[in-house]
Structures are given as C-alpha cells and as structure tokens.
TrEMBL record:
Protein name in the entry: Phosphoribosylamine--glycine ligase
Domain called ATP-grasp: residue spans: 107-313
Top-level EC class as recorded in UniProt: ligase
Cited PROSITE patterns: ATP_GRASP, GARS
Residues that span the membrane, as ranges: none
Cofactor requirement: Mn(2+); Mg(2+)
GO molecular function annotation: ATP binding; metal ion binding; phosphoribosylamine-glycine ligase activity
InterPro entries: ATP-grasp, ATP_grasp_subdomain_1, PreATP-grasp_dom_sf, PRibGlycinamid_synth_ATP-grasp, PRibGlycinamide_synth, PRibGlycinamide_synth_C-dom, PRibGlycinamide_synth_C_sf, PRibGlycinamide_synth_CS
NCBIfam families found in the cross-reference section: purD (TIGR00877)
Keyword set, alphabetical order: ATP-binding, Ligase, Manganese, Metal-binding, Nucleotide-binding, Purine biosynthesis
C-alpha cells in the first residue's frame, strides 16, 4: 500500500515509524518530512499547506492513503480536497477541524451540547472587549479565536495587561485574522490531562492519557512552547476521573458531533483540566498532539494502520484499540533560545544503541551528511518501563547519550506526575 504522511515534526516521525514497524510492506512518502526520515521518501519542496500541490502529488503517484497530521492543512481543508480526488485520509474534513480552528466554534459547540468548560464571552469588536475587561475580575484568559502556533493564549493578571493583549491581538492583529476575534475566559486551575481518541464520526475510542509540559523551563517557568516533554499514562487520570470523562465529556462530544453532522474522522484531542468543579474541557484539537503522540503510540499494542483505515472508512467499531500496561516518558531536546530565538545549526551526535529511542523533528542534514539542529524542537528522547519512575529514568539516561551544542531540555519531566502518583499510594 502507498501511504503518504503530511507534516515534518516529531509527531509525524513517530506515526511513520509506528506504521512501518507493524506494516513493513507499505511504502511511505512524507510531505515535507524531515531529513532524518530515511525510512520514507521526503518532499521538502512541497509545503504541508500547499493543498493543490499535495493533491497533485498524491494523484500522480498513486497514493492510496494519506495521514494528515498538522492542524493548519486540516483547517484549510486538505482532507476535503484529497477525498474529493478519491484518496482516503486519516484526519477530519474542514468542518470537523473547526473544533480546533476556531475557539469560538468549539465553545459554542460545548455550550450547546452541555460539555463542561470555562465560562466565556466572545468578541469581534475591541471596544466591547475593553468594556468587558474593565468590569471583570482577574486573572482572566484571553484567547485568539484561530490557529496561532500555540501562542494565542495569554493569562492576564490585571487590566493593564488585558488591554495590552487586546490591542496586540485585535488592533495590531498579531496573529492576522486568527486574532481579529477573541474569547475571554474564566481562569481555571488544576492539573491538566491530554486524552487523544480515535473517532470515525459514529464511534469514539480513547487512547491512554498523557501529561504534557508546556512551559520552557523547569518548575513550569517561562513562556509556553509547543511542548517540552510528556509522560503516559497520566496519574491524575484515575479510573474515577476516566469514568467522569467518558460520561460528561467524551460521550456528549460524540453525540454533539453526530447531532451537528460533523462526521469527524481522525484523532480528537481533549485538553482537560481537573478543577475543584470537576473535569473541564480546556480545548479540543483535531489531530494528534506533539509530543503526546510520541508517548502514547508506542504503548499501542494494536496495528495503527488498521485503526487508521477503519477510522477513515467508518468501521472503527470493529477495530481493536488496545494498549499495553507499560509507561512511557519523552524529553524534548530543543535549541537554546527556543521559543523566541533558537540557536540552530549544530551537529547532533549520539550513541548508536540509543537510536531506537530517538524521534527526530527539527533537523537538517549538512553537506557532510551529519544531522544538525534546524528549528526550535530538535528531537524527542524516549524511555519506557514497568513504572512511571523507570520510564522517566530511562528517558534521562538516553538524553545523557545525545549531544549537540546549544541544546536545552527540561530536567523535571514527570516530576509532578511522580509526586501525584506517590500521593495516591499513601
Ligand atoms: N481557562 C483557563 N484557565 C487556566 N489556564 C488556561 C485556561 N485556558 C487555557 N489555559 C492554559 O493555557 C494553555 C493553552 O491553552 P489552549 O489549550 O486553549 O491553547 P492552544 O494554543 O490551542 O494550545 P495547543 O497549542 O496545545 O493546541 C492550556 O494548556 C492551559 O495551561
Ligand atoms: Mg489547540
């Protein structure tokens, strides 16, 4: 079977290696892919958002199945265009991807279908938004409506900050049309949980939970990033919390998708927070998370390609989705200076025995054939074990076997999870 994956990061590398491990007979193209993907034919000349070029490539090359992993091509309607050209896909059509592509759309969906989420107001008029924050209590959360590379959410502590963010988003259009509209949300607190789920529009099957670490520095300090590390499963997601999730969030979401005719076929990502008012939805994403995918998929014991094909064809009810009882940890090695000014272009070296635990993302091959750091998040280092502690220790052991100049990684991935787990054991 000829399969094509869209994207170039660690998430796509992890999906690709998992597909090939279970199905060595498939041939794989990656658009654009990255230079470490030696197992695929990469196409750096085609952008992940160039819909006509991707459709033309897939048609001309007899691609039978396409996995669309990143948010922007999904929101631009790549799956609609590919399916209209007769190519089956894993990933929602534009109508379903709006759950990620517009936070207003997602909030309206949640309110309509009774799904617990922070109270909010939405604004397209900056004057009305200013009036609202002048009368509000702080902290507040201001979110750009559209996609903003994970940087469109700001927690503001006072009126001065709130007015500055509104100016920046709605008047200066920091994220273009994505921030022309905003939502202003009640501030919630509590531990966060990511749950990915396969959904074919009629059936939904959750994967194991995970815990992301979004801040750049240890102790959750500094600015938000795309994600600096992950552990799975997430110890906050106990059996009781999982039951609450299924009852109050997952099933009502599926019922809402069906009622609204969204026919969502792909990976639905639930960003959750366990607050003192119970589990709340912070956000939906319409795709696999990065780096959640890197810890969740290796624990999947079922065949990923079979699940993708079943999801695409609306046969998910028949597909086996089973996970092992092991634990996984992922430490993201980034460039020093990420997210603002990453220092790139340094050669990466590692012990050969650690290669199976490395997932490459922001890398380029130089003229000597060596891999160099080429964008913010460079590679992900994995560890596995029978316990959370074993997985974390193993991941850091592997990190010590990788080096490149001007790297930065967090040294406390999983620390909070370990503390929560220890607390459960008391
Ligand atoms: N109402 C809230 N109260 C407190 N913190 C919040 C709230 N909403 C969002 N956050 C924090 O901001 C982070 C990012 O928010 P959100 O997930 O909505 O943005 P995003 O840019 O779509 O993220 P991603 O890049 O993961 O898709 C959350 O993980 C959470 O830590
Ligand atoms: Mg999001």
């Amino acid at each position: 079977m000829k399969v094509c994956i869209i994207g170039s990061g660690g998430r796509e590398y992890a999906i690709a290696t998992q597909l090939l491990a279970d199905n060595p007979e498939i041939s794989l193209d990656a658009i654009p892919g990255n230079d470490a993907m030696t197992f695929a034919t990469i196409h750096p000349e085609i952008a992940a958002t160039d819909i006509p070029a991707i459709v033309a490539f897939c048609v001309e090359n007899g691609i039978e199945f396409c996995v669309v992993a990143p948010d922007d091509p999904l929101v631009l309607g790549l799956v609609d265009a590919l399916e209209d050209a007769g190519i089956a896909c894993f990933g929602p059509r534009k109508s379903g991807a709006m759950l990620e592509g517009s936070k207003r759309f997602a909030k309206e969906f949640m309110v309509k279908h009774g799904i617990p989420t922070a109270a909010y107001a939405e604004f397209t008029d900056v004057e009305l938004a200013r009036d609202y924050v002048r009368k509000a209590a702080f902290p507040l959360v201001i979110k750009a409506d559209g996609l903003a590379l994970g940087k469109g959410v700001v927690i503001v502590q006072d009126l001065t900050q709130a007015e500055a963010v509104l100016e920046n988003f709605m008047v200066d259009l920091k994220f273009g049309t994505s921030s022309a509209a905003v939502i202003i949300e009640e501030f919630l607190s509590g531990p966060e949980i990511s749950v990915l789920a396969f959904c074919d529009g009629k059936t939904i099957k959750p994967m194991i939970s995970s815990m992301d670490h979004k801040k750049i520095y240890d102790g959750d300090e500094g600015p938000n990033t795309g994600g600096m590390g992950c552990v799975a499963p997430n110890p906050v997601f106990t059996k009781e919390v999982a039951a609450e999730f299924e009852r109050n969030i997952m099933q009502p979401t599926l019922a809402g998708l069906i009622a609204d005719g969204l026919d969502f076929r792909g990976c639905l990502y639930f960003g959750l927070m366990l607050t003192d008012k119970g589990l709340q939805v912070i956000e939906y994403n319409a795709r696999f998370g990065d780096p959640e995918t890197q810890v969740v998929l290796p624990l999947l014991s079922s065949n990923l390609l079979d699940i993708f094909l079943a999801t695409s064809a609306g046969r998910l009810a028949e597909a086996e989705v089973e996970f092992s009882a092991r634990h996984a940890a992922c430490v993201v090695m980034a460039c020093e200076g990420y997210p603002e000014n990453p220092i790139k272009g340094n050669v990466i070296s590692y012990d050969s025995e650690v290669a199976p635990f490395l997932v490459f993302a922001g890398v380029k091959r130089n003229h000597n054939g060596e891999l160099e750091s080429s964008s913010g998040r460079v590679l992900n280092v994995l560890g596995f074990g029978e316990s959370l502690s074993q997985a974390i220790d193993s991941a850091y052991q592997h990190v010590s076997q990788v080096s490149f100049a001007h790297n930065h990684y967090r040294t406390d991935i999983g620390t909070k999870a370990r503390e929560i787990e220890a607390h459960h054991d008391l």
